Please model this.
Amino acid sequence: MAAGAEAPTSSEYIVEHLTHFSSMKQGFIIDMHVVNWDTMFWSVLCGVITIAILLKAARKATSGVPGRFQAAIEMLVEMVESQSKSIVHGDRSFIAPLALTVFMWVFFMNAVDFIPVDWIHGVNELLELVGLHSHLPHHRAVPTADLNGTLGMAIGVLILMLYYNIKIKGVGGFVHELFCAPFGAHPALWIFNFALNLIEFVAKTVSLAMRLFGNMYAGELVFLLIALLGATATWWGIGMHVVAGTVWAIFHILIVVLQAFIFMMLTLVYLGQAHEGH
Model:
């Protein structure tokens, strides 16, 4: 914040931190957000980190006594393999590595939430101190707290569900299942079967996206509210800021891991269902 500038209110502070760095496109009535570049940046960065870690583990894997890094990766691989084996009854040569990648990718995207919420303001103040008056734009660092990001991943899972339904059952078998299950093959029931199956696919996609988004968005809001405690400039506010921030950060570690695990498990469950008929 520039020297002499009026401090923002609590609502302005929260709105500022929940605003994306987005490109805009002129619509018929209002301007439309086209791309949230902050979500794209952190999603790609976390994806690159995930791939780099897995590549390093693959290249350094040995048949002898594993080091700590290899042992940690092997534990993850065994966990994912055991879960995929119990859920997916078929070829898992692609699905098991996919599940491992999804778990690590979502974990790293969730873990971005541990970056201090006011880091962007700290950078801007540092730029002012060195005589640079250009400011970094609005920025939200947690890609899984953006519904666009989680919905994009959920749509990717939906595409894989459709792919495996067609691959396992064939086009004819999949179409037959859409119109003849679960109520029966009578022509009078086709429209009801198709409507129910369509709702099922939409519900799976939306719930997968909303579950991850809702938990991470709520966590982001709690961090912002805790940060506001420190802005009270009172001893109890600063004390509560430290205590509540520490407790929530520790608890949030569980949320970060748990939400990554749930997203991976639901991905496995939905792909496993694609291998089975009604």
Observations:
- The chain has a mean pLDDT of 87.
- The radius of gyration is 23 Å.
